[in-house]
Amino acid sequence: MKRCYRGVHYDDTPSTLEVSEGEIGGTYRGQKWQLHYLRHIPEPLPTHDLKWRGVGYQTDKPSVVKSTPVKSTMTMVGTRSWFLNNSRQKAFPQTSITHLENICQSLEHRLDVARAKGDQDLVRQLEKESEQIACPLR
């Protein structure tokens, strides 16, 4: 079948896979649909010897991964998560103090600008805000 996409013409070959209809199906926007399953598994693609930036490799080559025992993996994961949680708990108080200091510095700067402009309503609002978050203003 001849097809064209964005000005490029090509021949489309229909799929040669044999499928069977499954039990799952329904109607979507007025059109009936049915789930299809392959009748057989297609043969694997051939392998090709390729090279990229001087490193050779093969396509579709099954790789063997050395597995580690589940017990040692679980121990490593548990130790790592404990270490991360513990270090985060130690860093949290300092982080929250630094965050509050940054908020107070920003609030102080905004208050200075409001005073320089002479905007008394904004000065009152910013002073109320500083009381709510307990920022020590000068």
Structure overview:
The protein has 138 residues and is of the alpha+beta class. 44% of the residues lie in helices and 25% in strands. The strands form 3 sheets. A two-stranded antiparallel sheet has the order 1-2. The protein has a two-stranded antiparallel ribbon with strand order 3-4. The protein has a two-stranded antiparallel ribbon with strand order 5-6. Helix 1 (70-117) runs antiparallel to helix 2 (120-132). The longest helix is centred in the C-terminal third of the chain and has 48 residues, at 70-117. The protein is elongated and about 80 Å long. The N and C termini lie far apart (80 Å). The model is unreliable at 67-77 (pLDDT under 50).
